[in-house]
Write a structure and sequence with these properties.
heterodimer; A: Fumarate Reductase Iron-sulfur Protein, Chain B, domain 2; B: Rossmann fold; 11 helices
Chain lengths: ~425, ~260
């Protein structure tokens, strides 16, 4: 009975804490400008099913795709087992699904065990790739000590959780063989039966191991749940809404700013009445609040895998720009702004901004807008849009661009071409041969 | 266009030449070759001549939305006045801007890139590869322009123009949706690159030279400049020719 009450306390505590952190992230995302992404629900569903649920964009890198699929399938399917653990924990039952499911239950437990083993294999391979093989994709300026540790913590926690699950089953398997009371005959143990011989045979000791592993497993999961909002691992949740709200237009289509359309139309036609606009009071973005909520959702979805950076032509050729850093900076700055609101109220200004304090001009001007980063992202994050918004601020609010870029603007304005040629010579190509 | 309008004629298609195609010496040749193809198949086309103006693409990528929309609205006014319905462009950047960014400012046209036009003409049997230079057995590779490929998912059209040549086609390591930029996009064409270890076009040229082609096919005037500079940098102009899809088509047909 005490165990049940304790379990309830832990479950409620963890859920409330997680709920509060998620609410905070939701509020932070809503600090962004409004942007309509409610159209074409069927296309959105399809994108989410293919990209997030079906992992379609992972296939470009087969080794990572297979290992990741083990972890993904393990996460999704083993959650059925967590449901049983929660019910058992609350009502003091043991393997409550065994009786109603019968033979199916044995199949399920057997599947979970194989998946748990595959998850461990995947995590070990990933740890080796990061720490022994030191793949280039996992390094870079933005991959400082915290992001590197974060990745390792996640993998180690997952190994520990799966080990506890298998250890629990191994002890249970032995107790079932000894017909120990309360341990009903249920489940198939294709993996843990091989761990069983390594266990002590004393029944009381086995119960201790089984209970210990059970508690470690579920408390570990609850703790891990609350680690998510602080970690890149939050992508396991965000991948779904983020792909739902994907940009469905061709990648080359940059949005036309309504606020600018109003000004340009008013300039061309004095009788024009401006349309209401969603954008803020300034052109482009200086800080996270000037970005759209989707840019900010992207930032919370990023799992820092570095596929974007590894295909970025600027980054490949040694420039400072790294699309992954753009996303990580946006998230770090947004977290900072959120903390400021919590501590000092809504209107607090800390004198810092995303542009300059986090992302430098050198980075945003190195982009070729080639869309390699958006193509590479397995969860449809768009770092390019953030870069363009920052450029818009630099150009339209501050008139800060390289002299050569300014002269290109001047040429277009005066000659209708980015180079300094006379418009009257525009048709000369027909004569030259 | 103005002449046709005055005569009360309507062209089948408007050829949007673009700034590079109008002023850049190398691109001018490609412009003339696109015209040769149009004339060869007997398609009635028009150009805007001195009335054409920059689409605003480089301004938009560089963050100058004002300048972009000023250009766009002036161009749309002109195109709508001429009641233009279908446009072919000689540049993927013009193609992308006209196709994707003009509609919600009031410019609705069917826009295709010249590689798509060539593909259509081949499919309709109006264009073959005969009567001109033979590319048979020559090693040809294609460099995907970002604004044709990833930006608009046009991967097959330019390849179609090469397939009919009976040449040996080789793909670059990074091709189609994985294609590597030439380094000119996003207004980089008009500025010095940021400090780094090498220029993007050099990285791309190394990859091109690795497959040892006789011809690199391009489909964008900016890629053309970047790739030619890259090839020149390695002193390989004698071995490797950079040719636009339109130039290859004209050569193959002896136009």
């Amino acid at each position: 009975m005490i165990a049940q009450i304790l379990f309830l306390v832990f479950l409620l505590g963890a859920s409330i804490l997680f709920g509060r952190n998620v609410a905070k992230i939701r509020r932070n995302i809503k600090l962004g400008r409004s942007e309509d992404r409610s159209d074409r629900p069927m296309d959105r569903l399809k994108t989410m099913l293919f990209v997030a649920f079906g992992q379609s964009k992972m296939t470009k890198r087969p080794v990572a795709a297979i290992m990741h699929f083990f972890l993904y399938a393990g996460f999704v399917i083993i959650n059925i087992e967590v449901l049983e653990i929660v019910i058992d924990g609350l009502f003091g039952t043991h393997r409550v699904f065994a009786a109603p499911l019968g033979g199916v239950y044995n199949f399920l437990i057997g599947t979970f065990e194989i998946l748990a083993l595959l998850v461990i294999v995947g995590c070990v391979v990933f740890l080796i790739r990061r720490n022994v093989l030191k793949l280039r994709r996992f390094s870079g300026k933005e991959m400082s000590s915290w992001p590197k540790s974060d990745a390792n913590y996640i993998l180690i926690i997952e190994i520990l959780l799966m080990s506890a699950f298998l250890k629990m089953n191994a002890a249970d398997y032995l107790l079932q063989q000894q017909n120990y009371p309360h341990y009903i005959q249920a489940g198939a143990f294709p993996v843990s039966q091989f761990i069983a011989p390594l266990m002590p045979q004393n029944a009381e000791f086995l119960v201790l191991i089984e209970r210990g592993a059970w508690w470690f497993h579920i408390l570990g999961i609850l703790a891990f749940l609350n680690y998510l909002p602080y970690s890149k691992h939050f992508h396991i949740i965000m991948a779904f809404p983020n792909t739902w709200y994907s940009n469905l237009n061709p990648k080359g289509a940059f949005n036309n700013m309504d606020s600018v359309t109003n000004e340009v139309k008013a300039m061309l036609d004095p009788t024009f009445t401006p349309l209401p606009v969603a954008e803020g009071s300034k052109f482009g973005a200086k800080d996270v609040q000037d970005l759209s909520w989707k840019n900010l959702m992207d930032a919370y979805t990023c799992t820092e895998c570095g596929r974007c950076t590894s295909v970025c032509p600027a980054n490949i050729t040694g420039k400072l720009l790294s699309p992954r850093k753009i996303m990580m900076d946006t998230r770090d700055r947004l977290t900072e702004v959120g903390n400021n609101i919590d501590q000092h109220g809504k209107d607090h200004q800390d004198g810092k901004s995303l542009l300059d304090n986090y992302i430098t001009r050198e980075e945003i001007w190195a982009c070729t807008t080639c869309n390699a980063c958006t193509e590479a992202c397995p969860v449809n994050i768009d770092p390019l849009n953030i870069i363009v918004e920052l450029r818009r601020y630099a150009v339209m609010e501050e008139a800060q661009a390289a002299a050569s870029v300014n002269s290109m603007f001047g040429n277009i304005e005066n000659n209708g071409a980015p180079w300094k040629y006379a418009p009257s010579d525009r048709f000369n190509w027909a004569q030259n041969d | 266009m103005a002449e046709m309008m005055a005569k009360g004629e309507e062209p089948e298609i408007l050829f949007w030449v673009g700034c590079a195609g109008s002023y850049d010496e190398r691109a001018q040749k490609i412009t003339r070759d696109i015209c040769k193809i149009l004339q060869h198949v007997g398609m009635k086309f028009a150009v805007l001549g001195t009335e054409e103006s920059c689409t605003g693409d480089p301004a938009k990528r560089a963050g100058n939305e004002f300048l972009f929309q000023m250009q766009a609205m002036a161009n749309i006014e002109l195109l709508n006045a001429y009641q233009v319905k279908k446009i072919v462009t000689g540049c993927p950047h013009c193609f992308n801007t006209l196709r994707n960014e003009y509609p919600n400012l009031g410019g609705n046209y069917e826009v295709i890139h010249h590689s798509q036009l060539i593909q259509e003409l081949i499919n309709e049997g109006k264009l073959r590869a005969e009567g001109g230079e033979s590319f048979k057995g020559k090693k040809i590779t294609f460099h995907d322009p970002c604004y044709l490929g990833r930006a608009n998912q046009v991967y097959e059209a330019p390849r179609k123009a090469l397939e009919i040549l009976d040449a040996e086609l080789v793909e670059l390591k990074r091709c189609k949706s994985n294609g590597l930029c030439c380094g000119a996009g996003g207004a980089q064409m008009f500025k010095e690159p940021e400090p780094g270890t090498k220029d993007v076009n050099i990285e791309r040229t190394e990859e091109i030279l690795a497959v040892q082609p006789a011809v690199v096919a391009a489909a964008c005037p900016f890629c053309m400049t970047m790739l030619r500079d890259g090839i020149k940098n390695f002193n390989k102009e004698q071995e490797v020719e950079v040719l636009d899809i339109a130039e290859i088509t004209v050569k193959a047909n002896g136009l």
